[in-house]
């Protein structure tokens, strides 16, 4: 199986790619939240993707199969920690279609995002938010070298 990982740019992004990412995002919503994206959600996500492409502080990577179909994606952004006046990388989204899991595609996406953090922004700290009840995600992130640091509490 020949999987290609690519950084999207303003020039390489088009409506077809945006729609394919939206469909994967919708699959992720169905899997993790047992719901589908509404029209307003889809519009907000497209807007978010556009903001990532317009900013030097955002990155979108896609994974494609041998038929050039998008089978996964990863989004990352650079954040500023105001208290210590430092920057860090945040992996905002990773998704790979179920049929392509357990083939190290998500790991390859993470590696590309981490390389982007290091090469473009010289930051070695990487954060990701994970639902504490999502054991598979926790196992994945620990498997790629991230450690549990703290628990975030919310009123949801």
From TrEMBL:
Gene3D superfamilies from the entry?
Answer: 3.40.630.30
Q: Which CDD domains match?
A: NAT_SF (cd04301)
Instruction: Report the residue ranges that make up the N-acetyltransferase domain in this protein.
Output: 3-156
The record's InterPro entries line, in alphabetical order, gives: Acyl_CoA_acyltransferase, GNAT_dom
A Pfam family name for this chain?
Acetyltransf_1
Name the UniProt record assigns to this protein: GNAT family N-acetyltransferase
Upper classification of the source organism reads: Bacteria, Bacillati, Bacillota, Bacilli, Bacillales
